[in-house]
Amino acid sequence: MIKVVILGAGNVGIHLYQSFKLTPEVDVIQLFSRKPNKIDFIGNTTEVISDYAELAEADIYILAVRDEAISEVAEKLSINKGLVVHTSGSVPMENLSMLDNFGIFYPLQTFSKNKEVSFSDIPLCIEANSEENLAKLKELGNIISTKVFEVNSEQRRALHLSAVIVNNFTNHLFTIAADYCHENELPFDILRPLIQETFDKIQDLPPYDAQTGPALRNDEKTIETHLQMLNEDRQIIYKALTDSIQKTHGKKL
What we know:
Elements: E1 2-7, H1 11-20, E2 26-32, E3 47-49, E4 60-63, H2 70-75, E5 83-86, E6 102-107, E7 124-128, H3 131-144, E8 148-150, H4 153-183, H5 192-201, H6 207-210, H7 214-217, H8 220-229, H9 232-248
Parallel strand pairs: 1-2, 1-4, 2-3, 4-5, 5-6, 7-8
Antiparallel strand pairs: 6-7
C-alpha cells in the first residue's frame, strides 16, 4: 500500500483525495489544510492537519497548492525519505530541488468543486529527479488512471498553455455567448447541441479540418454585420479570432 499525504484542500487536492480513497492500494494518511473546518465532510476517515510539524511519514507527499505557494510550502517540509511532488502545469520541477526526492504529478483536467470527475480517463503527466522516483509516480498514477505520461517540464508548460486555450479561453467565449443570449432574451440552452457537436467533431477530425464559419468562408458581409452588433470589447475579440482563423487557413479580408 502506498502511503500518501496531500497538502492542499482546493479543487485538485480534494479530487485527488476522493479518487485515492476509492482504491485499497493507496492510503491517504493525512490531508493538510490551513482551514480544516471547511473540509469537515471528510469525517474521521483521514487525519486533517494544519501544522507542518504534524506531518506523518509517507511514501509520497502531493503539494496541491497555488503555483506561487509551491516553493514556500516545500521549504517548510522536513522530509527524510518521502517523495514530494506538485500538481502544477506551469511550475518547473526544479522549484522543489531543495528536497532530496521530488517530481511532478500533474492531472491534465479542469476541476470544479461540485463537479465529479473520473480519474480513469484523466491524463496524468509525471516527472521525477530519478528513475526510482519516476517508477513510484508511475505506480501511483496507474492505480487511478489509464493514461500516465512521462512529460518533462518544458513539455508540461506547453501542455498547460494549450490547456488554457482549449479550456479557459473557450469557457470565456461561452460566457460571452451566454451574456449575449441573455441580453437578447434567448436561452443559452439553444446553443448546447452546437457546442456538443463542436467537441464531438474533433474526436474524429483534426481541429484544422473541423473549422467552419464566416471567417473561413471569407464572408465579409456577415463579418461586418456581426461587428456592428457587438460592443467595442467584444469587437476586439471577434476581430482577433477572425484574423487568426483567416491567417491559419491562408485567407484575408
